[in-house]
Specification:
Strands 2, 4, 5, 6, 9, 10 and 11 form a seven-stranded mixed β-sheet that branches. It contains no helices and eleven strands. β5 and β6 form a beta hairpin. It is mostly beta strands and 120 residues long.
């Protein structure tokens, strides 16, 4: 079973860049056909897929967030990272990393999630 763990600051100031890391165990992030996604859930709202990086390092982004989002990976550490720039209070959410094999929008394994609050 694949295990994922999010880490990063819980509080970010407006206009700053939010950075989160997902540490993966149980498989290599380079294993064929895995997609590694970031998903968030603002308070009172549903889940929102933000973007993903696949087993070959190719990235995919939600169009409405693409200008502010960057997803990268460190294969030596078996981690992938989310950066969201120019944050506002509307970016306050629980952020999850998740993965699925073969399909970008289907997830077999999730991290527990981490709360990020944007506030001055």
């Amino acid at each position: 079973q694949v295990q994922l763990q999010e880490s990063g600051p819980g509080l970010v100031k407006p206009s700053q860049t939010l950075s989160l890391t997902c540490t993966v165990s149980g498989t290599s992030i380079s294993t064929n056909y895995y997609y590694w996604s970031w998903i968030r859930q603002p308070p009172g709202l549903g889940l929102e897929w933000m973007g993903a990086i696949d087993f070959s390092g190719h990235t995919y982004y939600l169009p409405s967030l693409k200008s502010r989002t960057s997803i990268s990976r460190d294969t030596s550490k078996n981690q992938f990272t989310l950066q969201l720039s120019s944050v506002t209070p509307e970016d306050t959410a629980v952020y999850y990393c998740a993965t699925g094999n073969g399909k970008i929008y289907e997830y077999n394994d999730w991290g527990l999630g981490t709360q990020v609050t944007v506030s001055s």
